[in-house]
Amino acid sequence: MKENIKTNRKCAALSVLLIIFIILTLIYTSMEMHHECSHELYHEECPICRIINISILSLELLCFAIVSAFVAANFHFIGNKITRFICNSVINPTTLISQKIRIND
After folding, report:
1. Could you tell me if 55 and 21 are in contact, meaning their C-beta atoms sit under 8 angstroms apart?
2. What is the pLDDT of residue 1?
3. Phi/psi of residue 82, each to 5°?
4. Handedness of CA 72, 74, 77, 83 (dihedral sign)
5. For 101, which of 17, 26, 56, 96 could close a Cys bridge (C-beta 3.0–4.6 Å)?
6. Are 103 and 96 spatial neighbours (Cβ–Cβ below 8 Å)?
7. Residue (of 56, 62, 60) closest to 17 by Cα position
8. Stated pTM of the model
9. Which of helix, strand or coil describes residue 39?
């Protein structure tokens, strides 16, 4: 029981950190999106453009990880339901005797 509480606290702390990271990244990106590049090579050597590109890529990667975790959890849930259905209906079908139903004529 205590392990579940610790795990839930760790997950909650990680979720809060991810939300803070997303918010700060979005704020920084939105504030610096239309800056004036003073470098000749435009995007390649500008440190602000580099940080914007890194933040956009990290957000895309984070979104991909969240979607992947959601899909994996759904596959696990659906697979578990299918396995239970097969075990209950095909391998161990319920009969009137297994349900202990009395048939009166």
Report:
1. no
2. 61
3. -65, -40
4. negative
5. 96
6. yes
7. 62
8. 0.55
9. coil
Structural tokens at position 4: 């579940």
Q: In degrees, to the nearest 5, what angle opens at C-alpha 19 toward C-alphas 11 and 50?
A: 125
**Which residues in the chain show pLDDT less than 50?**
none
Q: How far apart are CA 103 and CA 97, in angstroms?
A: 10
Q: How far apart are the first and last CA of the chain?
A: 52
Alpha helices in the chain (DSSP H): 2-32, 47-86
CA gyration radius for the chain? 27
Task: Say what the pLDDT of residue 42 is.
Answer: 60
Distance, CA of 47 to CA of 64 (rounded, Å)? 26
Evaluated on CA atoms 75, 81, 85, 86, the torsion sign reads positive
Question: 55 and 28 in contact (C-beta within 8 Å)?
Answer: yes
Tokens (6 digits) for 70: 């959601």
